[in-house]
Amino acid sequence: MKLPLLDQLEEGPWPSFVKDLKEQAKRRPQVGQLLQQLEQSYENRWDYWRGTAINVPGYGGGIIARYSDLGEKFPQVAQFHTIRVIESPGFVYSTEALRQLCDISEDYGAGIMQLHGMTGDILMLGFDNEKMMQASEALMENGWDLGGSGNGMRTIPCCIGPARCEMACYDTLRLTKYLTDKYIGYLHRPEFPYKYKFKLSGCGNDCANSMSRSDMPVIGTWRDDIQVDQEAVARFVEEMEPEWVVRNVTSRCPTRCIHLHGDRIEIDNSNCVRCMHCINVMHLALAPGKDRGVTMLIGGKRTVRSGEMISSVLVPFQKLESDEDYLAFCAIVERIWDFWGEHGNEHERVGEFIDRVGLGTFLDGVGIEPDPQMVANPRSNPYIKFEEYAAPRLEGEPQKGANVLEHEPDRREDYEGS
Amino acid sequence: MDAKKPLAPRDNGAPDYKKYLHPAMERNYGRWKYHRDLRPGVFVHESESGESLYTVRAGSPRMLSAPLLRRVCDIADKYCQGRLRFTSRNNIEFQPEKEEDIQPLMDEISRVLGFPVGGSGHSFHNIIHTQGWLHCNLPGTDAAGIVKALLDMFYEEFTHENFPQRVKVSTSCCTINCGGQTDIAINLQHHHPPVIDHGMVSRCELPKVISICPVLAIRPDRVEGHDTVEVIEEKCMYCGACHAQCPALEIRDGQTDTLSIWVGGKSASTRGGPSFMKLATWGLPNNPPRWPEVGDAVRRILKAYQAGANPYERVGEWIERVGWKNFFAETGFEFTKYHIDSYRWARTTFNTSAHVRL
Amino acid sequence: MATEVERKTDIGPPHYDQFLHPLIKENYGKWQYHETLAPGVLMHHGPAGDIYTVRVSSPRLVSVNFLNAIMDLADKYSDGYFRFTSRNNVEFLLASKDNIEPLKQEVEALGLLVGGTNNAISNVVHTQGWVHCHSAATDASGLVKSVMDELAEYFTSMKLPAKLRVAVACCLNMCGAVHASDIAILGVHRTPPKIDNETLPNLCEIPTTVASCPNNAIRPTSIEGKATVKVDEEKCMYCGNCYTVCPAMPLADPLNDGVSIWVGGKICNARTEPMFTKLAIPYLPNNPPRWPEVTSAVKKIVEIYAANAKPYERVGEWINRIGWPQFFDMAGIEFTKYHLDDFRHAGTTYRRSLHNRY
Amino acid sequence: MAIPVEQLADEMYEIVKESAGVKKLKGGDLTKAMVAKHGDEVSRSDVKAAIRILIDSGRCVYGYFGGSSIELPHTEAAENQ
Amino acid sequence: MADDLKTPLLDELEQGPWPSFVKDIKSMAGKKEMAKDLLRQLEKSYEDKRGYWKHGGLVGVMGYGGGVIGRYSALPEEFPGVSHFHTMRINQTSGWFYTSEALREITKIWEEHGSGLLNVHGSTGDLVLLGTRTEELEPTFRALTEKGWDLGGSGSDLRTPSCCVGPARCENACFDTLAVNYNLTHQYQDELHRPMFNYKYKIKISGCPNDCTAAIARSDMGIIGIWKDDIQVDSKAMADYVDSGMDVQGLVVENCPTGCIQLDGKEIRIDNSNCVKCMHCINVLPKALSPGKERGAAITLGAKAPIVEGALFGSVIIPFMKIEEPFEEVHDLIERIWEFWDEHGTSRERIGEFIERVSLAAFLEGIGEKPLPQMIKAPRDNPYVFYEEYFAEEGEGE
Lengths: 418, 358, 358, 81, 398
Prior knowledge:
Number of strands of chain B: 14
CATH topology of the largest domain in chain E: Sulfite Reductase Hemoprotein, domain 1
Number of helices of chain B: 10
Helix content of chain E: 25-40%
Strand order of the largest sheet of chain E: 8-9-10-15-16
Shape of chain B: globular
Radius of gyration of chain E: 26 Å
Strand content of chain B: 15-25%
Order of helices and strands of chain B: HEEEEHEEHHHEEEHHEEHEEEHH
Largest sheet of chain B: 5 strands, antiparallel
Strand order of the largest sheet of chain B: 1-2-3-6-5
Structural class of chain B: alpha+beta
Largest sheet of chain E: 5 strands, mixed
Oligomer: heteropentamer
Order of helices and strands of chain E: HHHEEEEEHEEHEHHEHEEHHEEHEEEHHH
Shape of chain E: globular
CATH superfamily of the largest domain in chain E: Sulfite Reductase Hemoprotein, domain 1
CATH class of the largest domain in chain E: Alpha Beta
Largest interface: A-B, 130 and 117 residues
């Protein structure tokens, strides 16, 4: 096996996927052919994969099919599909579970995995049509499930949350499991205008990158005051010097609502925007408030078609503790899916849909009251379509004469009939 | 293995994470008080119960063979009660039981896996990346290879925390740009409209191909008696949306595709809100297997960032403060007309003030 | 039309040099600093001596009688030299400090106010309204008079946190400075144009009229064989552009026309970049001659601004600091869907961060 | 060879006459029409001079409904006699 | 007051501390039927809540296409005095300086030929003479030109340029705003009086970024003073401010948009490479700080009010240009802009909308300017770049 270009990637301190795959090629010959095809890509700067739809019966997603254009030359990778497996919330595993996945991956496929894919799934690479089915069966038998793809709800990734983070303002792992299980049908049987991604982060640090990469980010926040341990503040100020604290904590506050008075921190919580910076830097002394919940946002997406969008605020605060809270949360989600599902165009992400119909119309459609938290600022253009006055005109009077000046009332009747 | 019964949807849903939580995590779920960094890649979380949980973060290349993964499991069994966790940037997190285990664990990670420990705090974080030539059907460049080349170059920066703030990097192998908003992004850039294989177009649904184009540049056409499409070259902006819909519209071109570098993206609402990344430089050759030009460009950005940023400033926040004029001056990248936005909301990027650095 | 005098054209304005006070000519370009001695009284210090400015309100719409009175005072106290400001104030340019007080007394005897400097509400920039405009939804001079009667104390004092610029425009054309003022009062039409099918064919070119609509809401039609146009009410946003090109499509509707209030605009580059005004109150009744709803709304905004902003904070800067939710809360204004932008670049106004306040 | 300015004025007058009541022509429209007809033989300044002849002689007047135009003199609808 | 003039609603506006325009118009009502009928018609507007004016589209003075706004009453029989009520725009003097002698000439002419009512000044800057009849336009024009005054712009032409008080009475002026305003007005008399553009073109000139003429918001072309080198500091005056007990840290340092100022005892230190010339510190500490010595202007293009495509601020096209007699560099730039806009703009398209349509990059190429990072807030964030150059396959020629 000659791989002069790829061999160069075995050098260097960073772990080398080439080295790893070469080892694996000794056990699984298809991995050798995978490397040979990749070497050819490196030579020609050209890709040799074709994608198409292939599904497990009853499912509309979860399999990424790949056929090689060089199937004759490299028959072992002629079919080289990927299975998306729903990950464990928070990406936590036992070695026992992971070993099971390794076994299935090697028993049926190339024994290559990616932990994790962009959407959060576990990716298992290198199955042919037949083995793909068998592997799926083995996964499901052992309690694993396939992830989403296509125009459905996608697998939901979340941050580590309360499992190992003091900043988590709600149980991200629980919500991930709850939503995945509740809406598993929407995940497996795509019926939306386009994909719908949740990403869940426990606080504004947004470790799940939800703002720009999900249609519906759910981000932990709090309503009351930041918790301050003044003794810890004093220790921190003594250790770091007051000037350092002013330069790197208080003066970094986006709304300048935090002040250092001697060795005490004072916060004007009415102006705090939950940006997390002071808590991040002084996490020994500061912590999110106690009245915690989530902000639901909407509309983030990546570039394709209409350009980048970062999500915008939809529900500024929603409690997420009791079962009722969870149901209220889901009611909002379902109203969005109904409205977008009915009026969205094919291949139109929910953010693009909102841009097309207007946020005001969207709020009407999903039954949420406008709130100034939703905007960076109110409109600056004066072109407002006042409905209070348009409505009676449209419903009551005959439309054709409504905006015509009257000269002679009798003549107007003439063309009312035409 | 014979299928025992016909394959049917099971709707198993997500695995039960509770089974996989480290015992210390389970005991202290939602009761964490604070955390401390012990050294790059190693930190401890303190619980209200007084219990401590140590974490050792190791960089992985995302792509792992089953045997390698089993070796990962062996280590977790030995030190971490058989539990482990992954991060969204493809690091593996080991949770040793005792502080004394940290060093032997790190030694073993290095010896057995060859993985570095780091990628936390104010370091060069692991690069999230796409599939590239290894497994994607649309890419114009590789992903894993660029990542390997870059992280070799910035290995020191991964294992140390010497930047003013964390540096997150992503790569994307086509303009679909799967990589997300990061401090520095390396993306593929096409330079001309798609080339149409009229013989193959018939396999695609023409109305869908036409409607996918964001700038209405695709029109129905007839060639030699067959229904096909044509592309209006002046309107096309080489986004490749049609290529994903219909492979007969080939957007890729090994000769002309180049790489571009984008800076200043951020997802967190920390301090200033999230921001998009902006074009820094373009036209870098797609040069496997080591892409040295890309590495140089990233190095230039990081050098300027390291020298100019205040503590806690992300790349985008630093540029916001010193201004784009200084960014271009300090990196030496040329500012061209291609840096000026021409797409939706382009006007909102123009400088509508007399705030000018001269 | 035969006259002996040759008809002159294209002579341009007279040279400004002849209108400059001799002291100003000597100090031209050599000024060192200035001070505000009292509200409406400035001292500019130059090497050839100090010049004193007394700034006096005017209602902008004035008669020659008003000007004659001003000029008599100028002859008496400022050697016949004076100037106007872009906000329609009169400025007397005095060489002698001793003339300030007598001039102020005479000015006040005329019923005019001295002030409008520094942290004051300066004179209101406004349009013609019912006095002279064909497309007005409300009057301008009367609104200004009513509002400034309420706010006169802020003209004659300097007790605001920073300068405050008010502007009035009488329709959505937003003539004048309303789109970038601290507080703007804007006449609004809220119904589509009424089409005068009798005169339209004689007055207007149909294609020009159709093309004038930014939303493509106007379509050609014919009534009894006569070409005219019709308006798609759903699309019309009452901007009045069609009326500008076709007088047979008046928008005025006494029942529905009204007044809206906008806040937070800024032109000066000091500290923050220039900002557009944003919608505060979408509709208030059109209630001449005193517009009590408008004056009390404006006064309320001025008062909460005066009480809460920090020194040097303009209205827009203050709101940006405290956030729009708090502004609506403090001002007691209901936030409605009309506040959500749905025009060009609307998406850029959605709040795309976690920066919430509760 | 340059076209005499008077000739341009006459040609433009015909164009203004033809489009009366159909489309209001702007100075730029007339310039573009003359350039389309004569190519390099006319310059922008020639057209300007020709328009000035039309206006100063009273054969055409400036209108200003929705931006300025060059029209035949007529009584305007809004005028109160 | 005449008995036949009953204006109960307008009379309300004679009350209150602010000067009353109603009182002023009434003072003309005895002399002028026009003023009297103006009040009557206005009273009716106040009753009915609607205006009664018709827009004229044709009246003007011979040979000019701008400077007169035609206005007719919609109720000429009821209010014959304002049956015609045209406006004349008079080109104001640079910086709005007058002597009473010169202004008396105008008021005299206007009392003779018009209503005797004026706006000093209109939004564009002109001295606005309000209300006269068609037949009075030409005699008024002759009388005005006889005294050296000329009409301003209106319609699709160069609008009357206006400027701030500049070096005549301001220590912050970075160039001679009055001189360049006067020069441009005279240089482009033809463009001002004979509309040949796609739409209006407004020039406003401010001596520093305080922008007292609102150039950034209200002019198609803004010329705004700026400097290139360091802010000048008078350390003695600085120390005086600190000694006076002024909160320099809170009022000045913390308001700097880029945080480039630091107070060190009584000394102020400025990182001038990060200064964006916002003027705040100079405004607050006028005795201690002043603009640098290497002065000129930044040129912005494209501001407009919302009609039709939404409001735009001007954006920076030339970050720095020396503004010096005989202003040839300014002329050259203006003419390059006009030529490109003339050629490719569409009817009723302002320059800002034009730039947005063709893209800033194409516009810069069209007028022959190089892209600079000072022109933008940030480079593009979308990857849809229309690259013009790419590598061709070898052997296929260029």
